[in-house]
Design brief:
Blueprint (H helix, E strand, L loop, with lengths): L13 E3 L9 H8 L5 E4 L3 H10 L6 H7 L4 H11 L23 H19 L6 E6 L6 H10 L4 E5 L6 H9 L4 E4 L12 E4 L1 H4 L11 E6 L2 H9 L7 E5 L32 H6 L4 E4 L5 H9 L4 E4 L1 H4 L8 H13 L4 E4 L9 E4 L8 H6 L11 E4 L5 E4 L5 H6 L13 H8 L5 E2 L3 E2 L10 H8 L8 H9 L22
Helix pairs in contact: 1-5, 2-5, 3-5, 5-6, 6-7
Length: about 500
């Protein structure tokens, strides 16, 4: 049966940011949702995350439990057969490779990605009736359709997307809710006016089971400009349900400064008045919006709501809590070094292969440490941030400025574009405790990203540098305005659950 929409749920005051690779995993999103706020899982490279967790032996059996509920048992069975290692992944050995994103992906990539999107959302929603969202990136286009469909099969409530102009998402969500064949335009460097590169996805060809019509989730566009928000709000087909307005102090990718690029003495981009969002213009759009980047305090939450926002989105404060997917040792070191004032966080305009500025925490031994960065030999084997490039014969090739320079140049890339680039795919996977190890190249160093205001939030949450939980973040933000959450919520939503 179809999940009906049955009335209005109170809008969250707090959205937990969808961070990195597996940092915003199902455990964190579930913990936030149990408090009555919006928990968000990261959809970035979720297929690799599922494959590596299965190879690690699936401690607790959570992924296998989720896959038992996947509507097509044959598809779930093939994923388990290919990746599950009951004894776990032997330390110091290589993880099995997974299919990389491509314009025309093969069935193994599609099945793994759909199942991964389903499993992450299913586990986040399991056993309660709170709301769960999934965060996707417009810049990572090739996996969007299968991961979104998998999340929708599990009943995801919200979809959040930024790092581009995501005006194709609303009709895409509607199409996938009806299990229709769906396509999205693919940005291909060098494509001409007569070229039409589209990514096509056929739900019934991947999931053969008879699945009922799905309730479409709400779409929140992540923007850094009221001009872009107004453009999307005016769109007949691309109008979102609401917005997250992100300031450049947020962790991860930031929008580049508007106008002529100016750098400060440390080489970081300087943001000015043109980068400020006009909140009066946001209010005039008449759509719900939340503010993000430097809002992890009760005072900033009250300020946001006084300016017309429904609330705030907070990321880095959750990244260092116990339920986040960051490697436990990395979290502990980050908390200690932040409070000691020995962990610089800088906006690196070159680090990301996407060309977007990226926040890098300069922790010794990580990819943010110049010594560790120089020791790493370049390779590109996950491929989520590759740029599709039109070849002379009209086919599509792929290159990444973080891959070996000779390979990049051989594919037509400018060698100057490789300077300072980091492999975000491998570095963020390592930060989540799943680093690739290669016999000839060693183990991937982790890459840690945090927002500028993380230290201030940490002083309020864990002034001794000790551990804290997602619920502590929520209670801190809401201060005395709300009672502790009710832990006695009824279980189960699944494919036939009721959305409210």
């Amino acid at each position: 049966m179809t999940r009906p929409v049955t009335g209005a749920r109170a809008l969250p005051s707090v959205i937990q940011g969808g961070m990195g690779v597996a940092v915003s995993g199902w455990r964190l999103a579930r913990a936030v949702s149990l408090t009555g706020q919006l928990g968000v899982v990261s959809g970035t490279a979720v297929a690799v995350v599922l494959a590596r967790r299965l190879q690690d032996g699936d401690p607790g059996g959570h992924l296998r439990r989720a896959l038992e509920h996947f509507p097509d048992g044959a598809v779930a069975g093939r994923v388990l057969e290919r990746y599950f290692q009951p004894a776990g992944h032997p330390p110091g050995t290589r993880y099995r490779a997974v299919p990389v994103p491509r314009w025309r992906p093969g069935r193994p990539f599609l099945e793994l990605t759909v199942v991964a999107g389903f499993a992450e959302v299913f586990l986040a929603k399991e056993g309660h009736d709170g709301t769960i969202g999934i965060n996707l990136l417009e810049k990572i286009q090739m996996p969007t359709l299968p991961v979104l469909y998998g999340a929708m099969l599990a009943g995801v409530d919200y979809v959040l997307m930024g790092a581009g102009i995501p005006e194709h998402l609303p009709p895409t969500i509607t199409s996938l809710a009806h299990h229709r064949s769906t396509s999205l335009p693919l940005t291909v460097t060098g494509a001409g006016p007569g070229d039409d590169y589209r990514m096509s996805f056929h739900p019934r060809e991947v999931v053969a089971a008879d699945v009922p019509e799905l309730a479409p989730p709400r779409f929140l566009a992540i923007v850094s400009s009221h001009v872009l928000a107004a453009h999307l709000a005016r769109s007949e087909t691309g109008r979102p349900w609401g917005f997250v307005v992100e300031h450049p102090t947020a962790g991860g990718h930031n929008a580049p400064p508007r106008g002529r690029l100016t750098l400060d003495d440390a080489g970081e981009p300087v943001y000015g008045p043109r980068d400020e969002v006009d909140l009066a213009q946001m209010r005039a759009l008449g759509l719900p919006f939340w503010l993000a980047g430097g809002y992890a305090s009760p005072a900033k939450l009250r300020e946001a709501q006084a300016q017309g926002a429904c609330g705030v989105q907070v990321g880095s404060a959750f990244a260092l809590c116990e339920e986040s997917g960051l490697d436990p040792g990395l979290k502990r070191q980050a908390r200690e070094q932040l409070l000691a004032g020995t962990l610089p966080i800088r906006t690196d305009r070159l680090a990301s292969p996407t060309g977007y500025p990226f926040k890098v925490a300069s922790m010794p031994g990580t990819a943010g440490d110049p010594t560790a960065r120089a020791a790493r030999r370049r390779r590109c084997d996950l491929g989520y941030l590759t740029t599709p490039v039109r070849r002379e014969n009209g086919t599509v090739g792929y290159r990444c400025p973080a891959e070996p320079e000779d390979d990049y140049v051989a594919k037509g890339g400018d060698p100057a574009a490789t300077a300072g680039r980091l492999c975000l795919c491998n570095g963020l996977m390592a930060a989540a405790g799943m680093p690739q190890t290669r016999p000839d190249l060693g183990t991937e160093p982790p890459l840690l990203t945090l927002g500028d205001g993380t230290r201030d939030a940490l002083r309020a949450l864990a002034p001794d540098g000790g551990s804290y939980h997602a619920e502590d973040v929520i209670l801190h933000l809401l201060a005395d305005r709300s009672a502790p959450p009710d832990r006695g919520r009824p279980a189960g939503r699944g494919l036939t659950q009721t959305r409210s």
